[in-house]
C-alpha cells in the first residue's frame, strides 16, 4: 500500500498576483519559507551541498565547508535513488507553491485591506532559493511582505537559518530596504495544525476493527535535532511537544501516544527516541493492536514521509500490517484556510514577530555568522 504513491506533477505555479486589479506597489507578499528539496533527482547534489554547508542546521566545526562538500558527495547517489523511488524528485515545491497560492487567494477575500496578496516560496537549500524570491519580489514592486515559516515549531537550525538567509540576501538584492518585512516565526498550537491532524488520526483509527481501536498507539514523528543544538536552549523540542499535546487534547487522550524522532544523520548524539526503535519495540506486543505514525512537524509530504516512513520503515517492520501513517496536510482545505487566517491575524496584530523570537536569538546568536545584531533590523510592524 505504501509503495503505491500517486506522483503529483511538480510544476511552477504562477508568480503573478492573485488579483490583477490593484497596482503591484500595494501588494502584500506572502513568503512560505522552508528547507525545500530537489525538484528532480539530478538536483540532489546541489541540495545536499547547501544543506551540509549550513552550520545552523548541522554543525560540523571549523571545516564545515570542506566536510559539507565531502558528505554531500558521499550521500548523493543513495539519496538520488530514494528520490527516484518516490517519483523522481521531492513534491515539496509543488505543495508549497500550491498552498501559498491558495492562501493568497483566500486572503484576497478575507483581508481586503492588505490585498492583493502575492505568493512566493523561498527554500533554504533548493530552488526557488531566497535570492530567487527576492529578485522576483523586487521585479514585482512589492513593498511589504510576510515571511511565513513553514516549520510550525521554531528551531535555530531551521526557522532561524531561513531568517538569517533572508537577512543576508536582502543586503544583496534589496540594499535600499524597499520591502518592509514581518515574520510569522512559529505556530505550534494553531487550529489549522491541531484540527486537521486530529481528523487525520481519527480517519486512520477508523480503519482498525472497533474492538481494537483503544489499543492503537499513536506515534507522533518529528524530524530529530542534534543534541548540541538542543542543549543551547532551542525551542524546538518543547514546541513539538506542545503540538502533540494539543492534538491529543483535541482527541481527549483516547489513545496512548508517544513523541518520537526521525531522520538522524551522522554519529553525533541526536534527540530521541528514534521512530524506528520505538516501532520495533511495540509492533510485536500482543496488547498493541496498531500503530499510527503522525508527521507532526511537516506541512506536506516529502522524502521524510514518502520514503523514510512509507518505504524504509515499512520494509524493516516485522509486523507492517498493523502500521498506518496519518495523512500530511498537502491540499487539505481546512489547513490552507487556517494558514490564511494566521496571516490575516498577524497583519492585523501589527507585531513584527512573536514575543519568543528575541530570546531565541539571544540563546543562539553566537553560533551563527553574517547576520543582524537584533531581529528588529530585519522585521518591523506593517
Brief synopsis:
The protein has two domains: 28-40 and 89-185 and 335-367, Rossmann fold, CATH 3.40.50.1400; 191-325, Rossmann fold, CATH 3.40.50.
Describe it.
There is one protein chain. With 382 residues, this protein is an alpha/beta fold. It has two domains: 28-40 and 89-185 and 335-367, Rossmann fold; 191-325, Rossmann fold, CATH 3.40.50.1400. Helices cover 41% and strands 12% of the residues. The protein contains twelve helices and eight strands. It has helices at 44-52, 64-85, 92-110, 130-140, 159-173, 191-205, 227-230, 236-250, 275-282, 303-316, 333-349, 357-364, and strands at residues 28-34, 117-123, 144-149, 180-184, 216-223, 257-262, 290-294, 323-325. The strands form two sheets. It has a four-stranded parallel beta sheet with strand order 2-1-3-4, with helices on both faces. Helix 5 links the parallel strand 3 and strand 4 (180-184). Helix 1 runs antiparallel to helix 2, helix 4 (130-140) packs across helix 5 and helix 6 runs antiparallel to helix 11 (333-349). The chain is globular, with a radius of gyration of 20 Å.
Amino acid at each position: 500500500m505504501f509503495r503505491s504513491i500517486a506522483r503529483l506533477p511538480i510544476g511552477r505555479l504562477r508568480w503573478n498576483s492573485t488579483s490583477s486589479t490593484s497596482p503591484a506597489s500595494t501588494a502584500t507578499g506572502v513568503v512560505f519559507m522552508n528547507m525545500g528539496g530537489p525538484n528532480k533527482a539530478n538536483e540532489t547534489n546541489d541540495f545536499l551541498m547547501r544543506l551540509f554547508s549550513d552550520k545552523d542546521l548541522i554543525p560540523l566545526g571549523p571545516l564545515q565547508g570542506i566536510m559539507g562538500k565531502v558528505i554531500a558527495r558521499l550521500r548523493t547517489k543513495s539519496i538520488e535513488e530514494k528520490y527516484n523511488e518516490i517519483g523522481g524528485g521531492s513534491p515539496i515545491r509543488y505543495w508549497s507553491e500550491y498552498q501559498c497560492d491558495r492562501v493568497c487567494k483566500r486572503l484576497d477575500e478575507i483581508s481586503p485591506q492588505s490585498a492583493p496578496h502575492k505568493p512566493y516560496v523561498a527554500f533554504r537549500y533548493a530552488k526557488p532559493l531566497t535570492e530567487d524570491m527576492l529578485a522576483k519580489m523586487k521585479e514585482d514592486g512589492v513593498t511589504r511582505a510576510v515571511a511565513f515559516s513553514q516549520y510550525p515549531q521554531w528551531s535555530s537550525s531551521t526557522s532561524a537559518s531561513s531568517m538569517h538567509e533572508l537577512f543576508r540576501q536582502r543586503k544583496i538584492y534589496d540594499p535600499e530596504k524597499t520591502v518592509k518585512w514581518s515574520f510569522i516565526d512559529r505556530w505550534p498550537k494553531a487550529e489549522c495544525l491541531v484540527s486537521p491532524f486530529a481528523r487525520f488520526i481519527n480517519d486512520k483509527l477508523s480503519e482498525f476493527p472497533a474492538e481494537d481501536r483503544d489499543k492503537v498507539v499513536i506515534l507522533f514523528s518529528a524530524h530529530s535535532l542534534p543534541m548540541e543544538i538542543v542543549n543551547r536552549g532551542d525551542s524546538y523540542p518543547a514546541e513539538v511537544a506542545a503540538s502533540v499535546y494539543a492534538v491529543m487534547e483535541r482527541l481527549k487522550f483516547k489513545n496512548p501516544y508517544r513523541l518520537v524522532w526521525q531522520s538522524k544523520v551522522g554519529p553525533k548524539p541526536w534527540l530521541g527516541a528514534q521512530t524506528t526503535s520505538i516501532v520495533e519495540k511495540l509492533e510485536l506486543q500482543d496488547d498493541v493492536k496498531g500503530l499510527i505514525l503522525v508527521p507532526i512537524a511537516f506541512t506536506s509530504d516529502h522524502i521524510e514521509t514518502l520514503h523514510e516512513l512509507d518505504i524504509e520503515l515499512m520494509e524493516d517492520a516485522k509486523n507492517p500490517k498493523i502500521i498506518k501513517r496519518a495523512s500530511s496536510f498537502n491540499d487539505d482545505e481546512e489547513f490552507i484556510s487556517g494558514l490564511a487566517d494566521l496571516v490575516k491575524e498577524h497583519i492585523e496584530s501589527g507585531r513584527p514577530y512573536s514575543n519568543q523570537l528575541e530570546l531565541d536569538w539571544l540563546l543562539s546568536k553566537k553560533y551563527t555568522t553574517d547576520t543582524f545584531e537584533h531581529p528588529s533590523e530585519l522585521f518591523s510592524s506593517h
